[in-house]
Amino acid sequence: MREGDPADTHLADVLATQRAAFEADPSPSLAIRRDRLDRIARLLTERAEEICAVVSRDFGHRSVHETTMLEIVPLMSALRHTRAHLKRWMKPERRGRSLEFLQLSNWVQYQPVGVVGIMVPWNYPIFLALGPLIDILAAGNRAIIKPSELLPQTSARLARLIADYFAPEEVTVIEGGVEVASAFSALPFDHLIFTGSTAVGKKVMAAAAANLTPVTLELGGKSPTIVAPDCDHASAARDIVFGKMMNAGQTCIAPDYVLVERSRLDQFVGTIVSEIERCYPHRISPSQYTGIVGDRAYRRLLDAVQECRDRGVRLVAADIALPQTGASLAPTLVVDPPIDCRLMEEEIFGPILPIIPYDTLDDAIAFVRARPRPLALYLFTGSSETERKVLANTISGNVTVNGTLLHVAQNDLPFGGIGPSGLGAYHGFDGFKRFSHPRGVTKVRIFNPTRLAMPPYGRLTGILAKIMGRG
Ligand code: NAD
Fold it and tell me: Does residue 204 have its Cβ closer than 6 Å to ligand 1?
């Protein structure tokens, strides 16, 4: 941080206020934590309409159904789950002891860490701000949220909503551009969770390293979909379209590209296009299809498609009703593009779907393995042998078999990436643990065994060393 800059001083003051409040109550009771969770639930239910409206304005256009189903509904589900299990999670976790330490008892105490920073991308501005917040508050911490500057109205509304339901020393929002985001990542938080691109994630981790602030990085990347020869292709196409078309492809775990057996390539392309056209027919209001956020992103997608067109790649655009407001892009399939085109080198993050043919399942697995470890992997198969083979031979943050996106909504599964797609996982108990310090506690009961190993050393020490050092 640049010392003396008033904006930085403000950030430091906000952090100091929260830290002082944390020090005054470093171990909030179950009742306090539940009350904080209940206030998130009230915020979401009482203010759902204005949330949907403001997000749609910032997106140019965003389907109310998508904001409800993909942001508000999963948050309410996570809140119910956390509320129901929090009492058990907060209990000391009994641990074992070895034979020579039978006199002791061991347990893990999950302690709040203090003040946690939350850095939020624009694509799911409510889910990715309040999702981490649920786990952070459940773990007994306080939080400061930095929303994305790309959605200025949503960020301002979130700041007001949080202020309506929380005291600033519990949860608060810091608004501002990239400068503020950069200063935010350099604050000495007790933990920092960043959701966003891999490139910015590297900068955030470097800034946090200066303070030795632990980080959770929820990043992006190219999530592959393998369509095995044995699966029901029509059903797979339906699920792929669901995963790709939600939020117009601007989803971190959207299927980025699809691998399909060469002999079924054309048929599969046709099935996907019909499926997209079935979802967004001309006879219904085009308001169900979401816009692309930001001119830069829109141009980037158009340029990447143009590159493929210039290189003679077959493009198949679906004929759907496009909204007149905002920047909308027709869903486009890119059939067998060269692997060195932009669409195959960068995360797509839009309604463009490359379909890549493979000859054998081993080739498809090798294609995935040759690329950076993705955030999500999708597999469609009816064979448990194929499932076992793909799960054993690929690495990714999460997997959904015979569906798309579903793993992110499972409250009892860790969600996160690996390597370039992220570091650390949260949601449910895994989130509670992620934002807690697992303090190992050993307690001496009745007799302390080290008394037998004290100097002056004699025969007993030798016997003990033999017993304890046995193979
Ligand atoms: P982004 O990396 O551009 O921005 C994310 C956040 O970083 C924003 O709040 C922004 O203010 C901040 N930021 C920007 N420049 C910064 C800097 N120099 N220093 C510090 N902070 C800075 O990402 P985005 O465009 O908002 O979101 C899209 C990306 O996020 C995609 O790559 C997507 O895959 C990823 N994503 C991942 C997940 C996940 O759960 N893993 C979820 C959603 C999105």
Answer: yes
Phi-psi region of 324 (alpha: psi -120 to 50; beta: other; left: phi over 0): alpha
pLDDT at 76: 98
CA distances from 42 to 48, 49, 143 (A): 10, 13, 18
Radius of gyration of the chain (CA): 25
Verify whether ligand 1 is closer than 6 Å to residue 148 (CB atom). Answer: yes
Question: How many CB atoms neighbour CB 380 within 10 A?
Answer: 26
User: 261: Cβ below 6 Å to ligand 1?
Assistant: no
CA of 294 to the centre of ligand 1 (A): 14
Provide the whole-model pTM: 0.95
Give the DSSP per-residue string, 203-214. Answer: HHHHHHHTTT--
Q: Which residue's CA is the nearest one to ligand 1's atom 23?
A: 196
Q: Do residues 361 and 228 touch, judged by C-beta distance below 8 A?
A: yes
Which atom of ligand 1 approaches the CA of 220 most closely?
A: 34
pLDDT in tens, 138-188: 999 999 999 999 999 999 999 999 999 999 999 999 999 999 999 999 999
Domains and CATH numbers, the chain: 6-89+111-219 (3.40.605.10), 224-416 (3.40.309.10)
- Hey, what are 360's tokens? 């054998």
**C-alpha separations of 151 from 81, 193, 203 in Å:** 29, 19, 21
CB count, 10 Å around CB of 468? Answer: 13
Catalytic residues: 218, 252
Provide the 8-state DSSP code for 287.
G
DSSP, residue by residue, 213-235: --EEEE----EEEEE-TTS-HHH
Probe target for ligand 1 pocket from 58, 146, 148, with the most ligand atoms within 8 Å of CB: 148
Q: For position 1, what pLDDT does the model report?
A: 45
Of 39, 46, 176, nearest to 120 by C-alpha is 176
**Can you list the pairs that 93-101 forms with residues at least 24 positions away whose Cβ atoms lie under 8 Å?**
95/440, 100/449, 100/464, 100/467, 100/468, 101/449
3-class secondary-structure state, position 256: strand
Cα–Cα distance between 350 and 300 in angstroms, integer?
A: 10
Q: Alpha-carbon distance 352 to 333, whole Å? A: 6
Q: Residue 123 C-alpha to ligand 1 middle, in angstroms?
A: 9
pLDDT in tens, 97-149: 988 899 999 999 999 999 999 999 999 999 999 999 999 999 999 999 999 99
Hey, CA dihedral for 407, 409, 415, 417, is it positive or negative? positive
Distance CA 435, CA 193 (A): 9
Encode pLDDT of 427-446 as tens digits.
Answer: 999 999 999 999 999 999 98
